[in-house]
Amino acid sequence: MLKAIVTVMLKKGIFDPQGRAVQNGLESIGFDMVKGVRVGKQIEIKLSTEDKNAAEKIVHEMCDKMLANPVVESYRFDIVEA
Amino acid sequence: MNWGVLLFPGSNCAEDCFHVVDQVLGEPVRYLWHKDTDLGDVDAIILPGGFSYGDHLRPGAIAHFSKAMASVKQFAEDGGLVIGICNGFQILTESRMLPGSLLQNRGLKFLCQDQTLRVENTQSPFTSDFAEGEVFICPIAHNEGNYYADPETIAEMEANGQILFRYSSPEGEVSDATNPNGSINNIAGIINRKGNVVGMMPHPERSADEVLGLSDGKKVFTSMLKHLSAIHS
Fold first, then answer.
1. What domain range is A25 assigned to?
2. Which residues does residue B81 pair with via DSSP β-bridges, in sequence order?
3. pLDDT digits (tens, 9 = 90+) for B9-19
4. How far apart are CA A70 and CA A47, in angstroms?
5. Given a cut of 90, is residue B7 above it in pLDDT?
């Protein structure tokens, strides 16, 4: 069995208020090295296949269709052993 | 005219919409269910606010794949009037029936307040009963109402008069100070290019009955009725 680990982020240039709030929080407790924070989400999907190529193809399809909204989000993923 | 209010698991403004059509307009209305494929004989469809499918993944993202939405798309392609309010607007952008997307409010807070809107275009089936540049109060209640589209899309929509409502001051001034959620160009409501599908974050159904003290939102529904009556006469 394989597992897809999908990361969905707001596209570059789109303001991420949650990331800004986290950044402000980190700065306020003294992490003055912080220069930017973006918050996204991770989605893990177990797949009933051993074929990595097939898995990649199907996960792309899932992302394009539902997991990410291409108007505002980008995605990337890794396929690993479950 | 026959109106339909589409119910998803998690819709919570459907009864208000139903009430406005039934009691304020005095028109026949019924609920449509998200599993319906045949929407029956309807002339206008309202996608109400709420938290369809718990807002999971993204607001509207799951509702977009419901059986009924495929029929709503077909209904709109055939020229039927569709209005999505709040979560209904989010469903319409997720379905690509309207351009852009609704992001989280820039202030990170759920906003629940009366809001003044300025009417930007009265030449639509949804706004013809408003006066040019009219300012009215319409409540907002959302966490993801921050309208975004890429600059080319925004320019195209502005040029085509697709912006119907903007967040404004009571005097009708539109500025960053009158923008509650960070929406580009203070956009509160838009219409598709074809002119039969509208999405708006504010709730006209909550300001459509005299008993509530706010009734200008009614004009959205009376405009729709006027349009439907004209094409059916």
1. 2-81
2. B44
3. 999 999 999 99
4. 23
5. yes
- CATH code (residue B158): 3.40.50.880
Q: Which residues of A touch B104 (CB under 8 A)?
A: 17-18
As a whole number of angstroms, the distance between CA B178 and CA A75 comes to 34
* Per-residue CA distances from B208 to B138, B171, B221 (Å): 9, 21, 9
The pLDDT of residue B232? 85
Model confidence pLDDT, tens digit, residues B109-144: 999 999 999 999 999 999 999 999 999 999 999 999
Using only the alpha carbons of chain A, give its radius of gyration: 16
Q: How far is A28 from chain B (nearest CA, A)?
A: 18
Which of chain A's residues have a Cβ under 8 Å away from the Cβ of B182? 15, 17
What value of ipTM does the predicted structure carry? 0.88
Spell B156-171 as b/e; 16+ CB within 10 A means b. ebeeeebbbbbbbeee
CATH number for the domain spanning A68: value is 3.30.1280.10
Task: Give the minimum alpha-carbon distance from A63 to chain B in angstroms, rounded to a whole number.
Answer: 12
**Ramachandran sector of residue B99 (left: φ over 0; alpha: ψ -120 to 50; beta: rest):** beta
Range of the domain at B67: 3-232
Q: Which sign does the torsion angle of CA B81, B83, B88, B92 carry?
A: positive
The reply to whether residue A71 touches residue B103, judged by beta carbons under 8 angstroms, is no
Whole-angstrom Cα distance, residue A56 to residue A4?
A: 8
